[in-house]
Every structure is written in structure tokens, then in C-alpha cells.
Amino acid sequence: MALLHESESGELADEMAQAASGSVGEGLALHGVSRREFLKFCTTLSALLALPPAMAPAMAQAIAAARRQSVIWLSFQECTGCTEAITRSHAPTLENLIFDLISLDYHHTLQAASGDAAEHAREQAMKDNAGKYLLVVDGSIPMANPGYSTIAGISNLDMLLESAKGAAAIVAVGTCATYGGLPKADPNPTGAVSVADILKLSHPKLPIINIPGCPPIPVVMTGVLAHFLTFGRIPELDALGRPRVFYGETIHDRCYRRPFYDQGKFAKSFDDEGARRGWCLFELGCKGPVTYNACATIKWNDGASFPIQSGHGCIGCSEPNFWDAGGFYNALSMPARPLKVGAGVAAAGAATGVAVTFFNRGKKGAAKAAHATTTLDDLEK
Ligand code: FSX
Hints:
With 381 residues, this protein is of the alpha/beta class.
């Protein structure tokens, strides 16, 4: 700003104020976004949210008429991977979100302001949008000692409680915020807990959306924010607080290697013939069968790929306690026995694979009906 001529600086300030105070439609016009481009954007968004294509025009109308949603984003004990991930979102992009759809009033990694000015922005946004802002939180909260993690001298716990008071809803992004994640891994030296662990007690009526993943899929984060903006309410959630539209199926349910699993064809090492042929990575530790997430359908980096497509099994990063749930390269134990029987007996192996598939489908079906996580213990039983 200091480099701009005074009149230019005034124009820019006016423009920003207008975009911030007006509707999304006004903001879009200000940025030269055409109606056609905006409709295309809404079509992508409705597909992402699994809405019928006919919803796109209604969605465009709702978004254009809405005011830019105030968002306050707090980061606690985490690695900043969640913020790194959201900067790679492609539908909508983070730029779409920030400049066109939301008013990101506080995010200490992305905002230009620092120190007192940054804290003032948070306080002002809370005051101006009381009862209406979305509070996004990544990272876990240390309960063993408030001094383990502070922002502007305020403990994570105090900042969470204070910022949650006037929020319309909470969005916990990342496995750290949703379940405690890496900081909570055994022996949990900071006494890390999740956002819901605290807010379910202090603000029992406040809606909490959990978006797990270490990090979560970028467009799942932006998609949930866009959903709130379009419909003014949170999406349908499962028993763990996750949006069903993104976490309703396991990675395994939609994995393109699934036919090999069903035929009992498994890679035995990362460089064997099976691996080269793209066979199932189950015996190499893939946690796809017990992991609910959309990696196999939405994928990453503009839909380019996801871990299993690049030759590595799913590590189950969006499931509770995944750091302590066994080694990344240990196969889920249940199907290991019958699969070994199948070695060298191709036909029997295929039949065994099918039987195991049905067994697992039964297990997963039951878990799905209750919408609970299928655990390694479940499969062992
Ligand atoms: Fe945790 Fe996110 Fe993993 Fe990292 O903010 S979910 S350690 S990707 O950064 O919180």
C-alpha cells in the first residue's frame, strides 16, 4: 500500500471496502468475473457437493445474493499442512474463496497484518459479525499446560473459547483439530485434545463440522465453506461430525485397484510384478478398507492423483488415532490368513479373495449403517 500513489491508494481502499461490504455478486462484478464464468464455477461446485446439475443456477443466484461470509481461522498445535493444502484447492481455488466468496478476517499464516493489528482484526470481525461468522480451527489444543501453545500471549484454549462464543458454526479442519492427530499420538506429551472435546462441553449447541485428513483434501475444505455460503447451514454430517457427501464411503469402496482385491491379486512388495501391474496394495499395509474419505474420487492436485495411484497404500490419515493404530506397512490383519492360503493356487486364491471381500463388505456394511469407523479390531474379530 505504501508504494501506491495517494489517489490510487484511496481507490483501492474504496474498492476493497465495497467488495467487503456488498454482496458476493457485487464483489464478483468488481473483479470482472463474467456471469458465464460464475455459472461454470457453480456447476463445478454443485458437482463437487453431489447436487443435481439443475441446482447450479439456483446456487449461483443464492451465492450472488449472499453477503461475503466472515471467516475467522485459528491455528493451534499443527504443522501448517492444512493451510498448505488449502492453498492448492482448485474448485473453488483459495483465491476464488478469499476474493469472491468469503471475507477471511483472520488467518495468521495468510494475513498481511501482524501483532496488535492482527489481533484487532479478529476482535473487530467477532464484534461486527457476532453470531454469524464461521470459525475454522486447525490443530489440537494442549491441556497439560496452556503455555505450550499461545498466540499473542493468549493460550489456545482461551482463544478457542473466546472466538467460539459468537460463531455460527465451527469447522475443525485436519486430523489434529478433529481427533487430536499427531500431537495427541502416544504418549501425548502436551495433553492434546480435539476442538470438539472442548466445545461439546463449553458450547453444546454449537454445530461442529469435522473435516479430518492429515491434511484434508483441499476442495473438501473449500467445498464445505461454499456449502455453508450457498445454503446458510452446515452439510449433513455422520456420527463423527464429518460431511457425508465427502466421507460417506471408504477409499477402498471407490479404489480403482478394487477389482484386483476382488480377484485376490496382491502386490507382495513395492517392486514386484504385482506392484508393476497395479495390483492391490492391501498386503503392503493399505488402510483403504477402514478409511472414510474421498481421495479415490476427488483426488489431489486438480484431480491428478492420490497416494494409491502413485503406488503407496493409504495410511488412514483421516481416521481417529491413526498414528497409534499400527504401522503404515502392516497389513490389516483379518484377511491375511486366507490370502496366504491362496498363494500358488490361482483359482482358489481368486475364490478366497471373493469370500474375503464379502466378509469385509459385511463388516463395513454394518459399520456404515451405524456410520461408525471400522477399526482394525473389527476386522480381526
Ligand atoms: Fe495436523 Fe494441520 Fe496434519 Fe499438519 O493444520 S492434520 S499435522 S497436515 O497441519 O493440523
